[in-house]
Amino acid sequence: MFAGHFGVAAIVKARHPEVPLWALLTATQLPDLAFLPLTVAGVESIESTGYGKAVIDAMYTHSLLGALLLSLIAGLAAAKAWGKRSGIVVGAVAFSHWLLDLLVHRPDLPIVPGNIGGFPLLGLGLWNIPAASAAVEAVLVLSGAVLYWRSVHRRGNSSPHRWKAHASGAAMAIVLCLSLLSDIMGGN
User: Fold this and answer.
1) How far is CA 11 from the centre of its chain?
2) Which of 28, 84, 141, 154 could form a disulfide with 5 if both were Cys (CB 3.0 to 4.6 A apart)?
3) Of the candidates 152, 149, 139, the residue with the CA atom closest to the CA atom of residue 174
């Protein structure tokens, strides 16, 4: 769902052009970015054999409370930098990662970091139906690409640098589509 997360960032950027794109792209991947150092440290792990076949042990970064904490931190940092509304947007985008993961993951998402208390693990398992998972991801990516391009095009039409707006929208659409292809062809 890597590309699908980026699709959400592009959809939100189309609606909230005041929020920097880099902040939205980072927010939508925040649990995965936090996952990397914990993987290097041996605390969390991933074993992937293809699209939707990953065995993920992310008991801290991808727990419900962990995702809420990361989202709160991202939202507060964004609010300090760009105002309350942008903070809410960035925090919501960061939390969207967990919601999308809930949809696609098999039951491997804990409620509490470290699964303290042994609560049931969450995940609706759409990855078990790769075509359906890829379709959802494709809808997110293509919607993000189209909405982002349209918003950039609309804002850039009155600008003397109109070509930059069109190039930016086209580049984002290409990046999103390539990310989706990469996900489907060789990753998660």
Assistant:
1) 11
2) 28
3) 149
d(CA 33, CA 26): 8
158 CB burial (10 A radius; 0-12, 13-18, 19+):
exposed
Q: Which of 109, 102, 111, 141 is nearest to 44 (CA)?
A: 109
pLDDT per position as a tens digit, 47-106:
877 777 778 889 999 999 999 999 999 999 999 999 999 999 999 999 999 999 999 999
What is the pTM (predicted TM-score) of this model? 0.85
Give the pairing of strands 45-47 and 55-57. Answer: antiparallel
Q: Give how far Cα 188 sits from Cα of 32, 98, 133, Å.
A: 12, 15, 10
What percentage of the chain carries pLDDT values higher than 70? 84
Q: Using CA atoms of 64, 65, 66, 69 in order, give the dihedral in degrees to the nearest 10.
A: 130
Residue 136 sits at the vertex; the CA angle it makes with 25 and 24, to the nearest 5 degrees, is 10
Question: Are the beta carbons of 51 and 183 closer than 8 angstroms?
Answer: yes
> Would you state the structure tokens that stand for residue 148, as one six-digit string?
């982002």
